[in-house]
Specification:
Length: about 475
């Protein structure tokens, strides 16, 4: 699992570098149009998927009729992709007008490679060979990075970026086909129905994640310029860095909690959830404070973007990631104890609340309206999920630890502010030095705090032992 997390991390770094390179070498207007193209393509993928990808993983991993489920999934995805393509083409005028470019045909051309690339990944997961997935991610990310560099030298740049995106998916399909062990076998009606029975529930998780990730930029694209889409999307991707570890741990923790739930070992679940939430806060809280000091520096030096109050915008987005991370951990808990119906209700809250708030707040308040909408929605979802956790599970939030991390992060913030005043430069080298300094101060602060907590714990243990001995001595003298 560590190799999988490492591979995902490297792939994310490569994609991050790609966005940084593009934002510095092409106009934000073109980049924003490309982000909107990706957002619409992701929406089309939900229609072309309808939860089938998750059903493929589930049924193939059970080890029965693997080839038949593989084939049924492939045929279903191709059929749904064809129907989705017709819907996109029927709305081509609306889509092209929205993006400001002729993108509907490009989205249709991109849809099949995008779905087949995901299908290959799902099939390999269904074969329970997750160690292959980082190889596919790295292959796609490398093609995307190298192709994006070449695209900035081409004309038109937008079409070149779309071509590279399609090529990266095709390359992932070819690499994945080498590792696939399943083969085509004529499926029966039972296999299609079995996939559909599972997919109708799994589609909600895809829909919720799409709303969280994409609804804001879609509405920003409706009311604001494509340049503003670029600024928001880049800020969102920067905030994602602080959720990487938490997301990996939440995925790994699910099977453990499921097995403990089956044996009614709720104490172990409670301890694990507290640890998962603490690890999330460990990375996110310093990000909230640190972005206040270095957010604008990061955007200017890495992305060549100057935007008023970008530090505050980024800080609020990272705060929303804290709510998202804790909420995901609790939803995972509820699903692991056999109540996915409860956690699925959060999808309804998310689907209604976030787009509504974005539609109301973005026109008058711009990007900050979008950020506030996302943060408020994720907080409401977190509160809802917290209160639907069954009473048999006691949620122990790491409140004292979070307070300690906040105090350490505040000290780090002061150090970063002073470092900024001394450096007085927003160059790449100066920004890197300041960020490394902040990380160093935070790590040292955590080390000191940990020593203090250990001293307090040891002192309390010694005091308890002293009290026991004193009571024993007192009882002897009494006798």
């Amino acid at each position: 699992m560590s190799f999988v997390s490492f591979g995902d991390g490297v792939s994310y770094v490569l994609r991050f570098c790609t966005v940084a390179y593009l934002s510095s070498n092409i106009s934000l207007e073109i980049l924003g149009a490309f982000f909107l193209y990706q957002a619409i393509l992701s929406g089309g993928s939900i229609l072309a998927d309808l939860g089938i990808q998750g059903a493929i993983i589930k049924r193939m991993s059970e080890g029965k009729d693997v080839d038949e489920f593989f084939s049924a999934g492939l045929l279903t995805i191709i059929g749904l992709s064809f129907i989705t393509s017709l819907l996109i083409l029927s709305a081509s005028g609306l889509i092209n007008s929205y993006v400001g470019r002729s993108v509907s045909v490009l989205i249709v051309v991109s849809l099949i490679p995008n779905e087949l690339a995901q299908f290959v990944r799902s099939s390999i997961q269904g074969e329970v060979r997750t160690e292959i997935l980082p190889i596919l991610s790295l292959a796609k990310s490398i093609v995307w990075l190298s192709g994006a560099v070449l695209a900035t030298w081409s004309d038109p740049i937008f079409l070149s970026l779309v071509t590279v995106s399609i090529a990266s998916n095709i390359f992932q399909i070819l690499i994945g086909a080498i590792f696939l062990e399943s083969g085509f076998s004529i499926p029966k009606r039972f296999h299609f129905e079995n996939l559909a029975s599972f997919a109708k529930y799994d589609v909600f998780s895809y829909l919720e994640q799409y709303i969280v990730d994409r609804s804001a930029i879609l509405i920003i694209g409706l009311f604001l310029s494509n340049s503003m889409v670029s600024v928001y999307e880049i800020a969102w991707r920067v905030s994602s860095v602080f959720l990487l570890v938490n997301t990996s741990i939440v995925k790994v923790s699910f099977p453990k909690m499921s097995s403990w739930s089956a044996s009614n070992a709720y104490g172990k679940i409670e301890n694990l959830i507290k640890d998962v939430i603490f690890i999330g806060t460990f990375f996110v809280i310093p990000g909230i404070f640190g972005s206040i000091a270095v957010g604008s520096m990061i955007f200017e030096s890495f992305f060549d973007i100057t935007f008023e109050n970008i530090s505050i915008l980024l800080s609020v987005l990272i705060l929303s990631r804290l709510f998202e991370g804790v909420g995901d951990a609790l939803k995972n808990l509820v699903s692991s104890i056999g109540r996915p119906d409860l956690s699925a209700r959060s999808v309804i809250l998310n689907v209604i609340l976030q787009p509504t708030l974005c539609y109301i707040l973005i026109p008058p308040y711009g990007l900050f309206g979008g950020v506030i909408s996302v943060c408020a929605t994720l907080l409401c979802v977190l509160i809802y999920v917290y209160y639907i956790v069954p009473e048999s599970i006691e949620i122990q939030l790491p409140i004292y630890e979070a307070i300690a991390l906040s105090l350490i992060s505040a000290i780090m913030l002061l150090a970063l502010i002073n470092a900024n005043m001394i450096m007085n430069d927003n160059g790449l080298f100066s920004t890197s030095v300041v960020v490394v300094l902040g990380v160093g101060v935070y790590i040292i602060g955590v080390g000191i705090a940990n020593s203090i907590f250990e001293f307090i714990d040891n002192s309390s243990i010694l005091f308890e032992q002293y009290t026991k001995i004193r009571n024993r001595v007192g009882s002897i003298h009494t006798k």
